[in-house]
Write a structure and sequence with these properties.
The chain is of the alpha+beta class. It is 30% helix and 39% strand. Strands 1, 2, 3, 4, 5, 6, 7 and 8 form an eight-stranded antiparallel β-sheet that branches. A hairpin with a 4-residue loop joins strand 5 and strand 6. The longest helix is centred in the first third of the chain and has 14 residues.
């Protein structure tokens, strides 16, 4: 991996490392977008995002037919929003399944990591876009209230950026 990629992966990790829950959007067999709530398990050194799913899940079938996906993270209390586009890979690797296993996954898959229907999805991101505010919640609230009263747009310290991977 190049230094540029290392920097970009670090930037992505910086934005989403503490965000666990995402909406994972696939395209179904009818060509319609379908979003699933998912829990991020890991971001690997190449920027790949890992998730558990089941071979019975629509998500598993959808990415088998059309692997281009989008993953969205949101932390509304901090005004942080991240959208990641990438290619999903279907992974059946019992060693990796056991490596990432944790009690929360056990709740969804009570038969444990040896359940033949428990599988992984790794998303190789192409890029990400983020919206982030450096202002506190109170500052954002007052800026929006002022804008509503004055008919202007809120004056806030917002960042919008792209991460190419």
């Amino acid at each position: 991996m190049t230094n540029t990629n290392n920097t970009q992966v670090a930037a992505l990790k910086d934005k989403i490392d503490n965000l666990r829950f995402a909406m994972f959007t696939t395209t179904n067999t009818d060509g319609h977008l379908l979003s699933h709530p998912m829990t991020k398990q890991q971001i690997d050194d190449e920027g790949g995002l890992w998730f558990y799913t089941s071979t019975h899940a629509d998500l598993w079938e959808n990415i088998g037919a059309m692997p281009e996906v989008n993953i969205s993270f949101a932390q509304p209390d901090d005004s942080l929003y991240v959208s990641i586009s990438g290619t999903a890979q279907r992974i059946v690797d019992r060693a990796k399944i056991k490596e990432l296993w944790n009690p929360m996954v056990q709740a969804w898959f009570p038969a444990g990591p040896d359940d033949p229907h428990v599988v992984l999805v790794r998303v190789v991101p192409h890029g990400a876009e983020f919206w982030d505010s450096n202002d506190s919640k109170m500052v954002r609230f007052f800026a929006m209230a002022k804008a509503a009263v004055t008919g202007s747009t809120p004056d806030m310290d917002n960042q919008h950026g792209k991460i190419d991977l």
